[in-house]
Design goal:
The structure is a single chain. The chain has a single domain (15-168), classed as EF-hand (Recoverin, domain 1), CATH 1.10.238.10. 64% of the residues lie in helices and 3% in strands. The chain is built from nine helices and two strands; from the N terminus they run ααααααβααβα. The protein has helices at 24-37, 47-57, 62-72, 82-96, 100-106, 108-115, 125-131, 139-149, 159-210, and strands at 122-124, 156-158. The chain has a two-stranded antiparallel sheet. Helix 1 crosses helix 4 (82-96), helix 5 packs across helix 6 (108-115) and helix 5 packs across helix 9 (159-210). It is extended, with a radius of gyration of 24 Å. The termini are far apart.
Length: 212
């Protein structure tokens, strides 16, 4: 499943390269949103707060909100503090702006620890699949990732293998951008070439009409 956004709340917040992080102003906006959700003024958000927010913002399923809340509760306190909320919003913005691969590469250690549910130092297929939707990766794509980057053959990705995957994603995106740019230039030149003869004919006709 790929995330779709139903609300425009996050439309004006973007990640800034090369760190692919939110700006100070964006953090202030996120803080206001956090305070708005924290209506009982406890400086923390319960799972039902996050569930309501995610259901309002996206097409996420209820079971996925629980998984995401558990994964982002980094200190296992059962609630989400402001720092963890920043991470949630940053992940959503990366997905919204189609910059999830850049985010994974720039914050590979954070993402790896987020996916490594049991803190074993490796990521299994199942662990990756539970949050794959955040990075626009479906279960089939994740299985291919493990086939290509599980160098050790232990059916899991350690950090170095995961880092190789994120780097490959960036290189692939750069290659695709170059290909799209090349196609755009070819279409532009093709259009100009087609127009060239008609423009020359118009100029010649005008000259012949003006000059007896």
């Amino acid at each position: 499943m790929h995330l779709h956004f139903n609300s425009s709340i996050l439309d004006y917040i973007h990640l800034v390269p090369p760190s692919w992080s939110i700006t100070t102003i964006a953090m202030k906006i996120c803080s206001i949103l956090f305070l708005f959700l924290d209506f009982d003024k406890t400086n923390r958000l319960e799972e039902y707060h996050i569930h309501a927010l995610l259901i309002y913002l996206t097409n996420i399923h209820k079971n996925q909100t629980s998984t995401l809340f558990y994964k982002l509760d980094l200190d296992r306190s059962g609630v989400m503090d402001l720092e963890e909320f920043f991470l949630l919003i940053t992940l959503l913005i990366a997905n919204k702006d189609k910059k999830e691969k850049e985010f994974m590469h720039a914050h590979s250690k954070t993402v790896f620890e987020l996916l490594d549910e049991d803190s074993s130092g490796t990521i299994t297929v199942e662990e990756f699949q539970r949050l794959g939707f955040l990075f626009n990766l479906d279960n089939r794509e994740i299985r291919f990732i493990f086939k290509d980057f599980d160098i050790s053959g232990d059916h899991a990705l350690d950090y170095s293998e995961f880092r190789m995957f994120t780097l490959a994603c960036i290189n692939k995106q750069k290659s695709m951008k170059k290909k799209r740019f090349k196609i755009l230039l070819q279409r532009r030149f093709s259009f100009l070439a087609k127009q060239r003869q008609s423009i020359l004919n118009y100029i010649n006709k005008t000259i012949n009409e003006c000059v007896p």
